[in-house]
Design brief:
Length: 458
């Protein structure tokens, strides 16, 4: 997900932070004179040599530290808010288990994510099911498992769930997700709380629909949910949204209906380049100031803020392609099929060599590109970096969120390996996909006939 609107995107060389600045802002990374770039206590050069590249690396210790910082901010504000990790950001079982051990629940948006959360050991009652397109089958699964809450996003969805719950003899605990028509001041593709966005129930319709929910069989209305977007750096948009939700709670209670909880969503931003990171304390303060005195159970749904800085992508230079007098193209063995964000959102990610010797070399502008047959397969443009030669390895920073989880096998490129570091320990948590696996589940109808042997060149 992008760090800023495309209209504000900066391509100038002098706007980029240098490597010392990037590392200073990321205490889990350190450049050692002998071992090169360390992630927690593990030399990344060692991982790159042992597993090959590209390879995703996630830091368990970094995940724990960020979760605890967020949880402490909620406690300091006197909120006691439940934390449901938005697993769409990074759904690997190892990541889910690290966070579950810290006390996190899960926010899921598909039946597959729901089953992943359960497989990772997250109790169903600690799972919230969000999203605009829940199918009847997914609703039945959620009710069979007894999940804690379904966040409903339309009158149509409410009617469907009521019928399913009544037929099953079950009770569906629901919150109505409200679209507060608040501009999150983020990229248009990740804004979710403005009128015209596909998410949520129109604010003007929410009170009446809540009353309807209270009268429907099989439905137990708990309260409201709101999520206005992603990569939000300041508390003002949060506060504006929560003020509208607080007014809605008061209105519904005045009409005689109980409102027990509000799910405040997520969206807290991180620093990819040199922008300010979203503050957990400011986020908690916005919740406390608007909803804290209403006697509500509260919940939040962080994703990117927890896992984004907790991951890097290691990749190696295939070759350096000179382009006359223009900056050269540094062709990497990772591509847009691995890390989609730069191609999709023009997103900016820091790049740091793994070798201390490479990092200390003379710097010059370069374009970092992948081998995929698309001009859009560009990972960084006009980036001032040490001169990289064939075989040099680099880390692409802050790829823990919307990195591996958005990967594909486009151009018949197997999925990269994944590694978890934890202090000075590390382990492969997903091996590199064998190329044969790309067609293992494919079949050819009998009428097509057998493959013909290749004809020799004439």
């Amino acid at each position: 997900m992008p760090d800023q609107p495309a209209t504000l995107r900066r391509d100038t060389i002098d706007a980029d932070p240098d490597m010392a600045t990037l590392l200073a802002a990321r205490p889990h990374l350190r450049m050692d004179a002998l071992d090169g770039l360390l992630f927690e206590g593990v030399p990344l050069q060692h991982i790159a040599r042992e597993t090959g590249t590209p390879v995703w690396v996630t830091g368990a210790g970094t995940l724990r530290a960020r979760y605890r910082r967020l949880a402490e901010a909620m406690r300091e504000a006197g909120l006691g808010a439940r934390i449901h990790y938005a697993i769409k950001a990074n759904d690997h079982l190892a990541v889910l288990r690290v966070l579950a051990a810290e006390g996190a629940g899960a926010d899921v948006v598909s039946g597959g994510e729901l089953m992943r959360a359960v497989e990772a050991g997250i109790a169903p009652e600690r799972i919230v099911f969000s999203g605009v397109g829940k199918t009847a089958e997914e609703m039945r699964l959620a009710l069979r498992l007894g999940i804690g809450q379904l966040n409903l996003e339309s009158a149509e969805e409410l009617s469907l769930l009521s019928g399913i719950a009544e037929a099953m003899g079950a009770e569906a605990r629901v919150a109505l997700r409200v679209n507060p028509d608040v501009d999150a001041l983020t990229h248009a593709k990740i804004s979710t709380g403005k009128a015209g966005d596909k998410f949520g129930i129109a604010y003007a319709d929410a009170a009446a629909l809540y009353a309807r929910a209270a009268a429907l069989p099989g439905i137990v209305p708990l309260g409201f949910a709101v999520h206005i977007g992603s990569q939000i750096a300041t508390p003002a948009p949060f506060r504006a949204a929560f003020e509208r939700i607080a007014a809605l709670v008061a209105r519904v209670r005045e009409s005689g209906h109980a409102v027990r909880m509000v799910d405040c969503g997520g969206g807290l931003g991180i620093s990819y380049r040199d922008e300010a990171e979203g503050s957990p304390r400011a986020f908690a303060g916005a919740i406390a100031a608007t909803l804290g005195g209403l006697g509500l159970d509260l919940a939040i749904e962080p994703g990117r803020w927890l896992v984004g800085p907790s991951g890097v992508l290691l990749t190696r230079v295939i070759r350096v392609k000179q382009d006359g007098g223009a900056p050269p193209f540094v062709v990497l063995d990772s591509a847009m099929n691995d890390l989609l964000r730069p191609s999709l959102y023009e997103a900016w990610h820091g790049v740091v060599p793994l070798s201390a010797a490479d990092a200390a070399g003379p710097a010059a502008p370069a374009h970092l590109v992948g081998p995929v047959c698309e001009t859009g397969d560009t990972l960084a443009r006009h980036r001032t970096l040490p001169l990289l030669t064939d075989g040099a390895a680099v880390a692409i920073l802050d790829t823990g969120a919307y990195g591996a989880v958005m990967s594909s096998t486009y151009n018949a490129r197997p999925l990269a390996a994944q590694v978890l570091v934890d202090g000075e320990r590390w382990a492969v948590i997903r091996p590199r996909q064998p190329v044969e696996a790309l067609w293992r589940d494919e079949s050819v109808p009998d009428w097509i006939g057998p493959a013909s042997p290749a004809s020799p060149a004439e």
